[in-house]
């Protein structure tokens, strides 16, 4: 345990810890109750911070929730750069499989979907999550194109690599084995060879 | 409006109407508030029936919810029988696209996913939904195999036709156009030609 003096000396460290505690509280509450079934006060209580700290920093529960989802996404699925489209797709798919089956993955997925019924702010949060995921992917696919490869487009990766894994997790339809994930990539690859005509 | 005498004369008709009213109340409440945010009493109130009618008929809110999801599924996505695998897959995909974009589709999808966090009863309901969907598909694919065609397996249809459509609806990622749905089927078909070796 740290002393008050240490805390005073490291305001950045404390701020980061508060943020982490608040994020974890949101993730846990989403997993336990589902989005929409808890308040800012309950998040604050569980994270051990004051309500006002949350309102000052995030403004609304929707904005906080969006921050949680986007942070999880950027932190957990780094974009690989292996030098080939095939290598990148395999590494990316393996990363996503690991993350969505991890301790917070299903809760975050359900959170993003629950946001759709949370009015305008919720839809903005959901769209921001999707935009972030798309932007990550676009960077990887652009690099392949720059090397002279013919990558699929972002929506094809969404449809045939992310969507199957997301739905299997959400529906509880079996584990995402290494072979399964590789098969998803195999199905996408033949169509990314040299373009015809 | 019907008279009391008509009601008395058609007990089956009344029973069917109660069932439809209760189902619609559940679907509406799921769309408005999300699963977990309403009670049997609120369903009864909205459907204009007594709580006891619901408890007597369905037992629990989970059992009622499962009935709603399964009924929607069996009623809205009839299994085509066009005489060819390609025709069946195109018709099936078009049916699913129409249903999940219909007035109750997104709410039912979110319901099935929300059931995952509703404990053992909820998970049973979700699994029953998935089993029903799989069983529908298996019938269609078995017919293709009996004709000498090489159909994909059920999970491939789930992964590459249902999952992309479900995720696009859940994430609000664009409309399911006729061209889009046909492209999903096209991607699955080349792999269903004569088996090698």
Description:
The structure is a homodimer of 197-residue chains. Chain A has 197 residues and is an all-alpha fold. Chain A has one domain: Tetracycline Repressor, domain 2 (Orthogonal Bundle). Chain A has ten helices and no strands. Chain A has helices spanning 4-9, 11-33, 40-47, 51-58, 61-76, 85-101, 105-114, 119-146, 154-170, 178-188. The radius of gyration of chain A is 19 Å and the shape is elongated. Chain A starts with a helix and ends in a 9-residue tail after the last helix. Chain A binds chain B through residues 31-37, 106, 110, 112-114, 116-117, 123, 126-127, 130, 155, 158-160, 162-164, 166-168, 170-174, 184, 187, 191, and chain B through 31-37, 106, 110, 112-114, 116-117, 123, 126-127, 130, 155, 158-160, 162-164, 166-168, 170-174, 184, 187, 191.
Keywords summarizing the entry:
disordered N terminus, mainly alpha, disordered C terminus, 197 residues
Low-confidence stretches of chain A: 1-9, 192-197
Cα-atom Rg of chain A, whole angstroms?
19 Å
Task: Determine the fraction of residues in helical runs of chain A and give it as a percent range.
Answer: over 70%
**How would you name the CATH homologous superfamily of chain A?**
Tetracycline Repressor, domain 2
Estimate the global geometry of chain A from the Cα principal axes: elongated
Approximately what portion of the residues of chain A adopt beta-strand conformation?
under 5%
Can you name the CATH architecture of chain A?
Answer: Orthogonal Bundle
How many strands appear in the DSSP assignment of chain A?
A: 0
Please count the helical segments of chain A.
10
- What is the class of chain A in the CATH system? Mainly Alpha
CATH-derived topology of chain A: Tetracycline Repressor, domain 2
Measured by residues with Cβ under 8 Å of the partner chain's Cβ, the largest interface is: A-B, 36 and 36 residues
Note the gap between the termini of chain A.
Answer: 67 Å
Question: What structural class is derived from the secondary structure elements of chain A?
Answer: mainly alpha
Order of helices and strands of chain A: HHHHHHHHHH
* Overall number of domains of chain A: 1
**Biggest pleated sheet of chain A:** none
Assembly state of the chains shown: homodimer
- Average pLDDT of chain A: 83
